[in-house]
Every structure is written in structure tokens, then in C-alpha cells.
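Deliverable D4.2, example record:
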Amino acid sequence: MSVLLTGAKGGFGRILAQWLQQHANESVWLTDIKDEADEFYIQCDMGNADAIHALIKRVRPQRIFHLAGSFSNVYDMDYQINALSARHFCETLIAEHSDARLVLIGSAAEYGFIHPRDNPVREDHVLRPVSVYGLTKAIQTHFATYYAQRHAINVVVARLFNLNAPGLSERLFVGRVEQLIARFKRKEIDVIELGNLESQRDYLKIGDAISQLLLIADKGERGEVYHVASGQPVRMRDLLVEMLTAANLDMSVVREEKSNDRKIGYDIPIIYAEMKKTNGLVGGLEETSQ
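Output generated by the structure prediction step:
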């Protein structure tokens, strides 16, 4: 069996690629927008339907992990990568008469505004995204539902909350703090400036994220959405203290910039996942070593 992983150069993509290469008993093909000299690496533009079709015809994967994503906050760009690429994959699988399992990576940003009483949020909660990224990921979910129901495409959505792992994008809190700590220790900055630290989010260690993702790929029902999360809220301040302590620093190096400029409904005070659906998959969660 061959496996295809898109977004192989992203933070989660790099780690998942390494795990698959070390543990999977099949050929692992990687792709991203950038080129690389590797026998099992294929450069591909996820916004190009013909390129995706050619990729599938060449690799003939039995399983596809579609991790490629765009955080530009420019609708046309994010829509191409976060939503339309999923449609291109589905249309290609139809054209190729393929029953490959397509695992789309969703996002907690699809939920958008969540009232504290809505927690823990379930997969069937209404989607009210408040960011371009969340909006385009929500459209991806609708594509998945449509193609699963209308064309019986073997697609499932793994709706990812927040990762706690090294090497993530600076657009994410953990990645931004990691880079700011590194800059502080190199004496490039004399203080670490951050926004509101009282918000609570659902954070997951990378090994658990991979375990859940593989479980969903193996056992998830076609057309369904499953959370990839811890099911526990973590205060951003507490997470920051943990990261600072690991770097032999403390909160004295931090300046919190509290702003009142956010739009109504954008700064969500707390969101965390209901995990009954994912945990209820046959076979349970298997431990993944990292």
C-alpha cells in the first residue's frame, strides 16, 4: 500500500512524514510546493487541479493525508489551498475510480465564535468561523460531506485543535513563543511581547495527535468529522510558563499587551473538544512513541 502526504514541509507534516517513513510498512510519498531532490518527493501545487490529478495517477495511493494548508488570511489564496484542493482530490478520485482513503485535516478555527457554555464542543456544533482560515477550512468540510454522500468518496475529516510541538509556524502561539524565546536568548530582543494570555485552548502533544490521526484514517466512517484534540482546556499563560521554564526563563521577561481593538466575537475566551466520537472508534487509541 502506498501513502501520500501533502504539506510535507509544514510543522505537522515534517513530523508525520518522519513517523510514516520509520513505521509504515508501505511506500510513503511526500509532496509540497517546494522542490526537493528525493526519489519519493514530488513537487505539486495544491491549487492546480491538473497537477493533483497527475500526482494521483503517478503515485496511485491507497491512503492520502492532506495536510497542506495556507494561513495567508487572503481569501482567494486560502480558498485555493484549504478548500478547493480537497475538491480537486475528490474529483480526481472519481475520475480514477479510486477508493483511496482521503484524510482531510480540518481545524478548530471552523467553529469560530464559541460561547463558554458550548464547551466541550462537539463535531456537529454549528460552524461560525471568524477568520479566513476557519472559513476556508469549513468549506473543505462541506466538500468532504458532499463528495462522501453524493459520490461515495472514501473521505474523512480529522478536525485538528492545537498542537504543542517544536517547529510550528510563527502564526501559531506555540511557534511564535518558541521563536521569541530563541530571539530573546540571542539578545535580539530584550522582552517577549505577547497578547492576551487568559484565553483557554485545547492543546495536544504530537504523539497523541499522530495516534488519533491514524485511528481516524483506519476506523473513521466515510463522510464523518472527528476531533484530534486532548479534550482539556489549557490557559495560554500556563502554557507560556511551561515553555519559559523549559528554556530556563520566567515571566519576568514577558510583557503582556492587552488590546481592546479586537472585533466582537473574535477573541474566543475558551474552546476545547468533546472527544467521545474519536475515542469511541473501534480499537481505541494506540500509543505512538515519539
